[in-house]
Design goal:
Elements (H helix, E strand, L loop, with lengths): L11 H8 L12 E2 L11 H8 L15 H15 L9 E4 L2 H12 L8 E4 L5 H9 L3 E4 L2 E2 L5 E2 L6 H6 E7 L11 H14 L2 E5 L15 H7 L8 E6 H5 L7 E5 L1 H14 L5 H11 L3 H22 L12 E5 L8 H12 L1 E2 L1 E2 L16 E5 L4 H17 L2
Parallel strand pairs: 1-12, 3-4, 3-7, 7-8, 8-9
Antiparallel strand pairs: 2-10, 5-6, 9-10, 11-14, 13-14
Helix pairs in contact: 2-11, 3-11, 4-5, 4-10, 12-14
Length: about 400
């Protein structure tokens, strides 16, 4: 067996299952889960119809590079969304969802034969970054975050000797779990570091289309263009239809950026067997070419967060995120509970599931930055999320 497998830590949802093993959920309330970030709004009918209408494609092997019509649809969306040009033939590559691509990209980029191979990631973070790093034969470095700045990463605190060993940097904007969006000066800092030390930046942007401000979130390639880096050197952006179009089961997204990196990634994927099925490609073309359903989806989230956030803010330190569909809430100190104890007691008393924040982070500098926080995924319908929030308020008030 691959010895690197022993380095992997249990996934957060497996840890949650273990945490709840001895807990009996309240029978007085129906179960409501805010634990898993799985979109639960209805998939638009036109996407389903495009999928069904192209099932004849199952009779043929697909190309790993994807059909030109799909790459052109992806490039067209980038032009409309970010007002930037990408070459569909050399700077775009379809992938089977951003999760699969993030993992595979690390296997492409990391050279484990170089002493001290390091991959830097935010903390808290999406655990795929860590697993991809370990199985690529590198060591993860968890960059410290600042709770006072909505857990923005403190890049200045990363030592020079770490940057010298760094081959890949994972960033997530809008962030999971905080929903924070990286501003242009932060991108400028990271590009300067990349130029100085030669590492590649993987920008995870799967939450980019669920936002609450008037201005849509800044994308990595968009930031590069604004800063005069139109070749997107050492930068790849990852995006997905799962959240944007409510099709998590479609497993469809794309990467875009540095043509040299795309070429190497395509070579890896050709051997990895990562081609997207023709019917999925056709449904993806339909989804990327339509914005009406995205606007309607965003409106549902805005309505939901507008109702739920003020309810929880009465009893918790929580605020409307820049983007995404998570609330990153602090467990009140007056409860005298850890985030894991809070999740256990809430399930037992009110049958609501939340994810302990410490499960989404690693100890750094003697502390876990996710400790005393919980992540709530507001993915269900508004009424169900509001009911969950009401129960959480009752739970906290009953104990303070």
């Amino acid at each position: 067996m691959n010895p690197l497998l022993s380095l992997l830590q249990p996934y957060p949802f497996e840890r949650l299952r273990q945490l709840f093993a001895g807990v009996t959920p309240s029978a007085a309330h129906r179960a409501i889960s805010l634990g898993i970030g799985e979109p639960r709004h209805a998939t638009p009918p036109f996407i389903q119809e495009a999928l069904a209408a192209n099932l004849a494609g199952l009779a043929s092997y697909p190309s790993t590079a994807g059909d030109p019509s799909l790459r052109e649809a992806c490039a067209g969306w980038m032009q409309r969304r970010y007002r930037i040009p990408v070459n569909p033939a050399t700077q775009v590559l379809p992938v089977n969802g951003s999760r699969e691509a993030l993992f595979a990209f690390a296997q492409t980029v990391v050279d484990p034969t170089r002493a001290g191979a390091t991959v830097v990631c935010p903390n808290p973070f999406y655990q795929i970054y860590e697993g991809a790093t370990l199985l690529a034969g590198a060591t993860p470095y968890y960059a410290p975050s600042d709770p006072a700045r909505n857990f923005a990463v403190d890049w200045d605190s990363v030592p020079d000797e770490v940057w010298q060993r760094t081959q890949l940097l994972f960033v997530c904007s809008p962030g999971n779990p905080t929903g924070a969006v990286m501003p242009l000066p932060e991108w400028e800092k990271l590009f300067a570091l990349s130029d100085r030390y030669g590492f590649v930046i993987a920008s995870d942007e799967c939450y980019s289309e669920i936002y609450f401000r008037d201005e849509p979130p800044l994308g990595g390639l968009e930031a590069a263009t604004q800063l005069g880096r139109a070749d997107y050197r050492n930068l790849i952006a990852f995006t997905s239809l799962s959240k944007r179009s409510n099709v998590p089961g479609l497993r469809s997204g794309f990467v875009a950026g540095d043509a040299a990196l795309i070429k190497a990634f395509l070579l890896y994927r050709t051997y990895h067997g990562s081609a997207m099925g023709p019917a999925v490609q056709a449904a993806s073309v339909a989804a990327w070419n339509d914005e009406v359903h995205v606007e309607e989806n965003r409106a549902l989230y805005r309505q939901k967060f507008a109702q739920v956030t003020p309810m929880l803010a009465e009893v918790m330190d929580v605020r409307l995120p820049d983007a995404g569909f998570y609330l990153w809430a602090k467990v009140p100190d007056a409860l005298g509970m850890s985030d894991a104890e809070f999740a256990q007691a809430l399930l037992a008393q009110y049958n609501v599931t939340v994810l302990p924040g410490s499960y989404l982070a690693r100890d750094s500098g003697g502390a876990n930055p996710g400790a005393q926080r919980v992540r709530m995924a507001l993915v269900a319908e508004t009424a169900e999320c509001a009911e969950a929030a009401s129960r959480i308020v009752q739970f906290i008030q009953s104990r303070t």
